[in-house]
Amino acid sequence: MSDPLAQQPYVVKLVELLQGPKNDKGGYDLNVVLVPDVQSSVGLDWAADTGEPWPGPFFKSVTEHIRIFEFTYNADLRSNFSWTTFLDLGGSFIDCIASSKQFDQSALLLVGHGLGGLIIKEVLVLLEDRLYNPVLARLNDLLFAAILLGTPHCKYGESTDEMDALLNSIQPLQKKRLEKIREEFAVACALSPKFDGLTAGRLIWVLSETRPTKYSSQGLLKAKTKVIVDAASATTALGAGREIVIEVDADHRTVCRLKPNMALLNDIRGTLQAFLHNLEITSARTIEDERLGRGARQLFGSVTTRTAPAESAPGCNSDEISRNRSPALATAGSKDITAYDVIPDPNSQGPVSYLPSVKLPCHILGPPSQECFGRDKVLGLLEEHLVPPQRHAKGISQLRSFALCGPGGVGKTTIAREFIKRHKQDFDATFWVGSETEGKLSSAFNTIAAELGLLEPVDFGNSVISRNRLLDWLCNPLKQSRGMEEIEDLPTSLEPMANWLLVFDNADDLSILTEYWPINGVGSLLLTSRDPLAKGHIYSGDGINLEGFDNENAAAFLQHLARGKLQVNHDDVIHLADRIQGLPVLLVAITSMMEALGLSAPEFLEYYQERQFQSDIYKLKIGDSSENEQRSFFDILAFENFDVEALRLLEMLSLLDPDSIPEFLLITSKDDVQLPNRYPNTEESYKAARNYLERRSLISRDMDKQELTIHRVIQESVRARMSDKDFRETLQGAINLVTIAWAPTAGRWDYVMDRWSQCGLLFSHIETLRDEFLKCPDDYFSRDERLKAAKLLIEAGWYHFEKGNIEETIPFIDPTFNLIQNNNKESAQALSDAHFCLSSAYLWLRDMKKQQYHAQRCWELRKVLAPNGLDDLPPNGVSLPLCIAYDETARYHYDRRELETGLAITANSIKMNEIHEAGRGEPHEIEIGTYIGTWPRYTSALALYLLGRLDEAEAMIMSLYNRHEKYYGLLNTRIFKTGVSLSALSLIRAAQGRWDESFDLAQKTLQQYKQTIGNNHFYTASAHVKVGEHYTRLGDLDQASKHLEEASRIFAFRPCFAPDLARAQQKLSVVHGLLGNQLKAKGLQLKAQSLLRNFAREQGIPISGAFDSKDYERAVQFFLL
C-alpha cells in the first residue's frame, strides 16, 4: 500500500533572489528560475569560494536586466518523499509561474540541480502537453533553455544503484525507507522517454560529474564512493544538436557550486548573449514592414499576393496584405476565399492540430467471461481504490491504480469484468486492453483511439500516432476539443474532464507496458497479471495476490453452477473441489462436462481418479501454474473420450491469439489446404465442433461479431498435451489458414486501402504464430513449411510498412532469413522480397549502410530470376520483381542526391513498364504494372526537377498522372500513390511559375493522402509543408502556421524524420517572425538548426553555415521533397 504521508502535496514557494535594473522598454531581458536538489537551497549549497551563489554574477555577465528566482519545496526523503508526489511539483512549478505577472514577457531560463532537474524535465513535458491552454502556450514560448546540473536521466531496466547512491548522498536512509522509495522508481523512468520526445525548440545544457561522491546509508559501517551522475547517466536522447553535455570536475554535491568565470561556462554565456542580442534586433523591427519581407523570400525567392480586384490592386503593399488577413478570407474551408484563389475541400475540417471532441460515453469491453461468484471482498477493494471518490472533484488529479495478481484460472479477468459491470455508470469511458503482447497493446490502443474519435478512420493502424493520441487524452481527458474554450454556445453544465477506467488484462510481461502506461494520467487503471510482483511495479503500489476458492466456497460455486441441472451432494462436491485446487475456470469446465455426460459428482470422481488419465501429468508444467493445478486440468481434458473434430478445433484455437478469433479464419473452401487430420473444415462440421466446445465452457462466442475466445489456461493445457506431430501439423495448419484469409499479394506489393481492415483483424494471430514458430528447433519443420511461414511474415511486415509503422516492419522481416533456404526459384524470390522490405524500411530510417546492403542483395537475387535483364523477360513482357529491384537500388543514390546515377538505373524499370503497358499483359496485370511503375516515374520526375530539366520532368510526371487518373481517379480512396503524382506535378508547376495550378495540386495531394493513408502519415506531413508554403506566399500566415505546426507534430513522432521536422520548423520560424512572435521564431530557428546540424554530422552531409533553404531541402527524405 502507498505511504499516506508521502502522498501529501508539498509546500512550494517562488522566492526572488536578485532583481537588476529594467531595460529601456521598462522590462527585463531574462528571467532565471533556480530549482535546487531535495533538502537543499541555493543560498547554502550553490555558493562558490566567494560565498555568493554563482548564478548571480554569472547571469549578470550575460545581461544586467535580469531577475533570478528560487523555487523552494519541502520534500524530505525520510518522511514525505514519493516519486509520484515529487514529480507533481512540475505542476506546482507551472502554477507558480503562470499565476505570477512577472513572467509574461521576458525570456525564461531554468537551472536545476540533482532531482531538481527532474522537476524541470516534468515542467517541460507538461507545458508541451498543454499547449491548448493559451497561458501555458505563452509560457512555453518564453522558456528557451535549461541547464541541468548532475541530473540523472533514469531509464527502464537499469539498476537503481545510481539513484540509491544519489538519495543516500542527500541523506543516509534506512534500508526499508530506500526500498519504499524504490517501489515507485518506474515513475522517474517514465519521465525520460517523454522528455526525449519533446519537440519545442530550446537548448538543454547537461553538466555531469567526474569526481566520486562519498555517501552512506544508515546501518552501513563504512562510507562508499561513486561517480553518481556521469555523462552516460546524465545524457538524454534529445541529440547533439539540442543537448550539450559538459563534464565538470566535481562530485554530486559540488557540481552546483560553479565559479562564474569558469571556462566551461564561456560557451553558455556566449550562446545566451547571442540569443538575447538577436532577440533584441528582431523585436526592434517594424513588424508590418517585414510581414512579407526577408523571411518569406528565403522560402520562395519572391513573394506574390493574390487579392480580389475590388479589394486592392496587384501591387498592394504589406499593410494592405495585413488587413486582408482576416478570418473571412483566410480560413481553410470557409465560403469566402476568393481573395486567395483557394480551392476549398468541402469535406475538410482544416489542418487543425487540436484534438476533436471525444465520443462519450465510450465503453470498449472485452469478450464475456464466466459468472463471478464469491468475490465481494475483492470487488469492494477495487471500488475503494478505483472508483472516483467524487466525480470531477477539484484537485483530484492522480492516477488511481490496482493490480490483481495470481495464477492462471484463478478468476482475475472475471473479477475485472464484474467490476466494470457494477461500476460502468461511474465512468465516462471504460477500455479493455489485452496485454499479452505488444502487438495486442498496439491494436487495442488503435481501436480505443478510433472509437473515442481521436483518429479519423483512415488513420486506424498507425500505432505510434494512436498510442500517443490516446495517452495524451488519458493524461488530460477533456470532454471537448482543444481550441474550443472560446466557443460561447457550449452548455454551462458541461463537465470539462472525463472519468475513465483502463484495464490491462493478462499483463504478465510488465516491461511491454512501458510505452502504454499513462504515468500522468487522470483516471483509474486496473491490471491483471500472473506476475506476483506486478502490484509492486505499478506506480500506486496497490494490489493483492488472488487465490483460488477454499473448499467451502468452491463447493458452493459448483453447486451454484449446477443448480437445476445436476444432483450434487455437498460432501462429494467438497471432495471434488479439494482435488482441483479451487480454480474457478476448472469448476466451470467440470460442471459443463458433468452436464454434457449426465454424470453425478461421485461418478465423475470415479473416472477422474483413473490412473490411465494421470500417467504423465505430474511431469508437465504450464506457465506459472502449480503442478496440482496442471494435473487437475489435464485430467479433465483426458477424462472424456473427446470428439476428435472438436479436439482438432480446440488445438487450432490454442495456437492463435486467445482473444477475438474471427470465425472466417477457421474455415476455408479450398480443398488443397494442408490441415490436421479430422480438422472440421466444412461449415457443418465446424459448427458441430464449435458447439461441442461451447457446451463444455472451453470457449465462448460473440454471436454479433462472430468471434471466439478461449482462456489462456485452456490454451496452455491443450498445447502441453499435444504430441510433437500434432503440434507441428496444427501450427502449420494455422499458418495455412491465416495465409488464405490474408490473401497475399504474391510479390506485387499492391496493398490497396480496402485490404487494410481485414489484415488488421489477423495481425495479432500472425504475431502469435510467429512467436510459436520461432520457438521451435531449426529442424522441426520442413523446408517448404518454413518457407510458407516466412512468406506470411514478409506480407505482415510489408503491411506495417504501408501503414507507416516503419520500425515495426523489422521484427517481422528479420526472422525470415533464418527460415528460408535459398535452393530454388520460389525461395530466392521470397528471400529477395525480405531484402526489399528491409531496404525500404532502412531507407526511411536513414540507415543507409543497411539500406544499401539489402538493396544490393535484393538486386543480386532478382538477377537470378531474370539474369539477362530486358532480354530475359517472361512472356507478358515484364518482371515486376526485377522492376522493384531496379527501383530499390536507385533509391539509395537518389537519397544521396546522386541524381544522374539514379536516373540511369530507373530507366530500365520504366522501359520494362512501358513494354508491359503496351498490351503484352492482361488488363489487371497492366494495372498492376502501372502501380509498380509509379515509383520509377515519380523518382525520375523528382530527379529531373532538381536538375532543372523541367520539360523532361513534366513529361515524365504527366505520364504517371494520366495513368493514375485512368485506373484509379485523381482523388480516389484506394491507393495513396496517386498522391505522389499530384505532389511532384505541384513542385514542377511552382518551378514553372504556374502558382495557381501548383497550389491546387498541393491541396489535392493533401486531400488524397488524408482519405487514403490518413491524417498522421509522413506523406501527409510533407503535403502540409507544401500547402503551408503556399499560404505563406499568399500572406495567409495563420493558415500557414497551422499547416506547418501539423507537419511538425507528425514528423516529431519518429527520430528518423529529424531533417524533415527541421525543415518544417525552419519554415514555421519564418512565419512566426512575420507574425511578430520573435521569441518563438528564434526558438524554432535554433531547434531547426540543431536538428539539421546533428543529422548532417551523422550522415556526413555538407551544410552551409548560413542554414539556408537548400541545406534543409538537401537533408529531407528524397520522397518527401
Describe this structure in words.
Residues 1-7, 284-355, 391-396, 481-494, 610-636 and 868-878 have low confidence and may be disordered. This protein has 47 helices and 18 strands. The chain is of the alpha/beta class and 1121 residues long. Helix 29 (724-742) runs parallel beside helix 31, helix 32 (806-813) packs antiparallel against helix 34 (825-844) and helix 41 packs antiparallel against helix 42. The chain has a 7-stranded mixed sheet, sandwiched between helices. The relative contact order is 0.07. It is globular.
End-to-end CA span: 55 Å
Shape: globular
Task: Enumerate the strands of the largest sheet in spatial order, edge to edge or round the barrel.
Answer: 1-3-2-4-5-6-9
The value of Rg in angstroms is 32 Å
Portion in helices: 40-55%
Tell how many strands the DSSP assignment holds: 18
Average residue-wise pLDDT: 77
Derived from helix and strand composition plus strand pairing, the structural class reads: alpha/beta
Strand content: 5-15%
